[in-house]
Amino acid sequence: MTGAHSPLAGRTVLMSGGSRGIGLAIALRAARDGANIALLAKTGTPDPRLPGTVHTAVDEMEAAGGKALGIVGDVRDAADVERAVRSTVERFGGIDVVVNNASAISLHNPGALPLKRYDLMMDINVRGTFLLSSLALPHLRESPHAHVLTLSPPLNPDRRWLREHAPYTVSKYGMTMLTLGMAEEHRGSAFSANCLWPATTIVTAATLGLGDEEETVRTSRTPQIMADAAYEILTRPAGHTTGQTFVDEDILREAGVRDFDGYRAAPGSAEPMRKDIFL
Questions:
Q1: Is the dihedral of CA 209, 39, 230, 262 positive or negative?
Q2: pLDDT digits (tens, 9 = 90+) for 164-217
Q3: The pLDDT of residue 4 is above 70
Q4: CA-CA distance, 208 to 105, in Å (whole number)?
Q5: Residues acting as catalytic residues
Q6: In CATH terms, is domain 12-263 a member of 3.40.50.670?
Q7: Predicted model pTM
Q8: Where are the domains of the chain?
């Protein structure tokens, strides 16, 4: 359904990742408005360890009411990102929104973290955000609805995040700083660049792989809370709100949400939610 109550109808979103988890939830929420969604993701064929591919995501988005384009590629590769931007513009005529969703995580410190994992985090998280945002910028500047949304945390000076997992912290804060830099560069224009982070842990393939799966489900929320928060940000007028590092609960409270129980991954669980890192 599109129209006055579907502010993203006809707008084009280019996202890194999105075959599953938070990215897919954000894409589906935009698709329900009738948005055009282009996904750049590596999963072109099924992985027995993980559900979903670029192609199944496209099917879900089109079933939700949007138009979708799946692009199999690596956000670390400049040629793949150039192809994704070009294909999106050729298919949909421009780019209104970039969502920097793709991310890698490893919660180890120097001495315990293999160089290969360090490079992976820096390349996907920081280089990927830089590449996708940079190559899409000429098209965003032509849009009256330009938004960049990066899934990265507030810059928290508490040194515990350096003590506990400095490499991952560097990579996620790098995403945030790049996004805030774009906001300042374009401040005063019809261009918004913001970050979004969950108040609690979210059940995804990545978080389930970090520890006790049953406990994670009992103390976490579904990706839908991030999708609803992202929608609230992306439907604001471009340039109206920029340079912010939002937390999902806060943005939804501003929108009038008071009951968050519906977002629980384990409905009816009485266990306290597990606070996410960096907060």
A1: negative
A2: 999 999 999 999 999 999 999 999 999 999 999 999 999 987 666 666 788 888
A3: no
A4: 12
A5: 168
A6: no
A7: 0.95
A8: 12-263
